[in-house]
Amino acid sequence: MESKTQPNYIPPPQPLPKPDQSELLSVVSLSLAKDIRATVYDEEHVVVKYTPARTYLALTPAQWKVLKAFADRTATVPQVLFELISDRRCIPLREFYEIIIKAYERGILQAVGEPAPAEVPAEDWTHRASGRKVRPMVIVAAVGAVVSMVLQPFALPTAWWELLVGWLIACVAASSGYFLSACVARDEESEIYHPGWRFRTLFPRWNADLHDAVMGGRETVVNVALARIAPLLVAMGIVPFLHPGISFLLFCAFIYQLSPFWWSPGLTLLHARYGKPSLDAFRSFIFEPNRNRWFALRTRLKHTDLKFLNLHLGMTAGWLLLVLLAGSLPLRANALELWQNYQSSGGLHFTALAMLALLGFMVVGSIGTAVWLIAHSALHRITTWINKSLPPKSVPLSAEALQETISSSLLFKGFGRDERARIAEAAAPREYKRGAMIVKEGDPGEEIFLVHSGRVEVLRDTPAGRPEWVATLERGDVFGERALLETGVRTRSVRALSPCILLALHRQTFEDLVLSRLNRTQVEEILQKVAFLHRIELSATWSPQAMFAFARRALMQSFEVGQTLIRAHDDNQYFFLLYEGELSVQKNKTEVARLKAGDFFGEISALQNSTATATVKVRTPAKCLVVAKREFLQFLVNDFLVGLHFEKISSDRLGEPIFPLRGRSFDVLR
């Protein structure tokens, strides 16, 4: 044999590491596996199976259409999501991402170049039996068992051999039931897995994995469950007439087959007839945002099958009563006698009252704990707000502190340590008292400022001559760049809100140290767009990559007073994010709202490709970040967190889920 240490030895290829969720949902190319079988379980449920690995997904028809979008091609998740939105077939995004990840984990969706899941071979089962013939056989057997119980009541075993014979007959009946149900399942083109003997059970028997019966649909599941209990019913109808002492264990085995505490034939029948399959999009969450415990709990409660749950509880109560009656035979107990003894004893006594008091203490303690937690959380928030409102303390102007401030600024994030050190050396510290005017609108500007400590506010002069607030800047924020990049004149005034220290860079220093590394467009995106996105509520939680992606797609546009941005009942092709100024929202020529910096609009009509429901006009000179519909959707589908964010915002504004989409088609995007 050739040694593995020889030079010409080629080690076997190592499997590629699986991508994480972010990579899977953004750049990995996926396709629908070839060996897929899909079954319509009922009108509302589809079961999809990857046959070689024997993995399943329970889906709605709409969710199955999502996976079929990957058929006969390879595509990334953003590409498919864009097409689904465009074609009016998009489902709620949490469902979408959940089934994508689960389909990938189970081999139903496969990545190019990655190995498929390990195969699970099915048994080569040649025996078949018609499920349509099983039902009348079970009815006849059940009637025979009831007649037998009436004509020949149970008798307790009087010898050990009666127990042994009854136990053996129950084991044979259970084995026959599994064999018959396997034949029925195979007749419906379901696969049989892992047949063999099972000894670690109350009734040892021949067994087979019959869960694949679900691929035959609801009726196949019913037929398979009936086939499992048919031989036992036949035995219960015949054995009492042969020897009554043997039948007691058969009755116990029948109760065991009706148990509501495991997937017995009885519970399977109840679920198949009156229940619904558990959809994989709403349980055992894998998608990280869905793993939030409160979301998971709400989702499970929302999709709980209440009808089946009530029936299951009723079945459990009836089964326990049946067990009680069966147990009263060997114990020779009388339930009516027990109840009469309880009543004659006077009902509840000290022990019961003590238990009730303990229960009340637990309830009061739980409520008190909840109140304490809420109060503690509120106090923490108030303290945090007060601390943020206090003027920040000035930091020492050491070289390390200056470099730390510079590194905290978005503008200098990509700069190296030596570059930041040179900027710190060139920066001139300036200290301002509260209320001091730092720059004034209309004055010439030769410097750019970086906030080192304290807070400043940006103001705009209105036509009436009074200053109007535009934004508040804190440590790491930059202002004054527009005078250096554009006109050389200050376009806004800046005033100190608290004692503050600023770092000033002269024009020449700015050009030598900053513009030599970043072009003017990059500086504008970082300082005007990305810094703005950092400050507003809409995008404060976005990743830096998402902010820069939005900034690259958004155009900064200025609008004059009285200009109409959107007109009611007209098509809207843009998403607007108000950068500064004030807008008026009007319906039937009546103002219903005013929008200020950080407000946005147009996302619903862009997502639904519907006409605007209101008119938006410019109330004061304004600037907006404007993104075309196609660009906005591409931005949304490329970052699943951003997509979930806009889905929630749009749904809250509509008062109902925005997906699945309504409105006209997206032909305008084609």
Automatic annotation (TrEMBL):
The keyword Membrane applies. Residues 411-514, 559-636 form the Cyclic nucleotide-binding domain. Keywords: Membrane, Transmembrane, Transmembrane helix. Pfam families: cNMP_binding. The chain crosses the membrane at residues 137-154, 160-180, 221-242, 248-270, 308-329, 349-375. The keyword Hydrolase does not apply. InterPro entries: cAMP-dep_PK_reg_su-like, cNMP-bd_CS, cNMP-bd_dom, cNMP-bd_dom_sf, RmlC-like_jellyroll. This is Cyclic nucleotide-binding domain-containing protein. The lineage of its organism: Bacteria, Pseudomonadati, Verrucomicrobiota, Opitutia, Opitutales.
